Amino acid sequence: MRILVACEFSGIVRDAFAARGHDAWSCDLLPTERPGQHIQGDVLEVLNDGWDMMVAHPPCTHLAVSGARWFKEKRTEQAAAIEFARALMDAPIGKVCVENPVSILSTAIRKPDQIIQPWQFGHGETKATCLWLRGLPNLTPTNVVEGRKGNVHRIPPGPNRWKDRSRTVPGIADAMAEQWGVTVEHMEQIKEAK
């Protein structure tokens, strides 16, 4: 499948799909941190390029409820962030996942289809992550672990704090690729083999 990973500079989700044989591309305004297929630019300009699936990570700076105390001061930025997320949710792509932390998207657009945690996918930490899905099933936890700490909230202040907080943990990326990267043709082959 041709897979677009929108608003991803880390390459973590892109590489999980690519490792399973998909034509996976990340797209972000920033350059990628890892070598791989990457479009540096505005993702809205490539939404119509024939993708089969998109996993999108719109910036949460103006959306996450963790920053609610600043909402009144940034209404213009917040409105633009909501419209950007809506454009991703409405993209002309058959399978879509938009992920964000607990945010105002739940009231501005709609409630998420699922809320997941890193500890459900092999990482002993907490970070509630909402998934808005279209054409995709909910993710099934793959490796529930103990030791649930809020490590993301403990990242010290600094110029790269937002980057460090925004990366998808590999266990979630692997679950997405494993569970959503199965094509209809592959599913039919599995059924025939049984």
List keywords for this structure.
alpha/beta; globular; 194 residues; 6 helices; 7-stranded mixed β-sheet; single chain
**How much beta, percentage-wise?**
15-25%
Which shape, going by the Cα principal axes?
Answer: globular
Give the SSE string. EHEEEHEHEEHHH
Q: Biggest β-sheet, characterized?
A: 7 strands, mixed
Mean pLDDT: 85
Give a short synopsis of this structure:
This protein has six helices and seven strands. With 194 residues, the protein is α/β, with parallel strands linked by helices. The longest helix has 15 residues, at 75-89.
Helices and strands in order, then pairings?
Layout: E1 2-6, H1 12-18, E2 23-28, E3 38-40, E4 53-56, H2 75-89, E5 95-101, H3 105-108, E6 114-116, E7 129-134, H4 161-166, H5 170-180, H6 184-193
Parallel strand pairs: 1-2, 1-4, 2-3, 4-5
Antiparallel strand pairs: 5-7, 6-7
Written overview of the protein:
By secondary structure, the chain is of the alpha/beta class. The protein is 27% helix and 18% strand. It contains six helices and seven strands. The protein has helices spanning 12-18, 75-89, 105-108, 161-166, 170-180, 184-193; strands at 2-6, 23-28, 38-40, 53-56, 95-101, 114-116, 129-134. A seven-stranded mixed β-sheet has the order 3-2-1-4-5-7-6, sandwiched between helices. Helix 1 (12-18) links the parallel strand 1 and strand 2 (23-28).
